[in-house]
C-alpha cells in the first residue's frame, strides 16, 4: 500500500473565547516547523480546552485529509490551510474520513496512531468558520476526519510518510460511525472486540449501547 504524507503538524496557536461553559476553545491550531513529540494525550505543546468533548486518550490526535480540505476550499471559495478545522495532522494520500476503526498508522520511524472515532462538529467550530448552518453543512458532507489514539510515542514532522500498518477486516469506518451504524456494522465491531483484535473507544461503545437499547425496545413484546 502506498503511504500517505504528513503535510503539516498543527497545535494550538492561541485560546479563543467561546460561549460554552468552558469559556475558551483551543480550535485555533496552526502548523509548526520542525519535529513535534507525540505522547499518550496528543502533541507536545498542544491542549484541549475541554476534554469532555475533545482530547483524552481516545481523542488524542485529530487528523484531516487534504482531499477533504480541497473539497471545502471549492465549496467555500477560499483556501483551507492546515489547522483551519482544528486538526493536528493534515494528511495527503489517505482517505482519512473513511479510515477503518482500529486501523493503525505509522508516522515516520516510530510513532504509531490508531483510528478511534469520527469528529462531531460543534458550535465552537461553527463560530470559527462563520458560515451559515455550518454544523449541518459539515455533517451532511460526511468529510469529518478522524480521531486517533497514540499506540507508540515518538516524534513527527511535516513530510513524514504515513503508512497503514494494520487494517482490521471488519471494514467499518470512522465515516460509517458518523453516518450511523447499521445493526450489522455494530455486530461486526462488537465481534471484532470480543475476538480480541480490537479495542473500541468509549465513544464507539456508547454508540453500540445505544443501538442495542433501541433494538431491545423495538423487539420487546407490546404490553397487553
Describe, in short, the structure shown.
With 224 residues, the protein is an alpha+beta fold.
Walk me through this protein's architecture.
The chain is α+β, with helices and mostly antiparallel strands and 224 residues long. It has a single domain (4-178), classed as PK beta-barrel domain-like (M1 Pyruvate Kinase, Domain 3), CATH 2.40.33. The chain has helices at residues 66-76, 123-129, 134-141, 174-179, 183-194, 202-219; strands at 4-12, 16-17, 24-25, 29-31, 36-39, 42-43, 61-65, 89-92, 104-107, 111-118, 146-152, 154-156, 161-166. It has a seven-stranded mixed beta barrel with strand order 1-8-7-11-10-9-13. The protein is globular.
Largest sheet: 7 strands, mixed, barrel
Q: How is the largest sheet built, in terms of strand order?
A: 1-8-7-11-10-9-13
The CATH architecture term is: Beta Barrel
Pick out the low-confidence regions.
Answer: none
Give the SSE order as H and E letters. Answer: EEEEEEEHEEEHHEEEHHH
Q: Assign the structural class, choosing from mainly alpha, mainly beta, alpha/beta, alpha+beta, or little secondary structure.
A: alpha+beta
Number of folding domains? 1
Distance between the termini: 58 Å
Q: What's the multimeric state?
A: single chain
Instruction: Evaluate the radius of gyration.
Output: 18 Å
Number of DSSP E strands: 13
Protein name: MOSC domain-containing protein
InterPro entries: Benzoxazolinone_Detox_Enz, MoCF_Sase_C, Pyrv_Knase-like_insert_dom_sf
GO molecular function, one term: pyridoxal phosphate binding
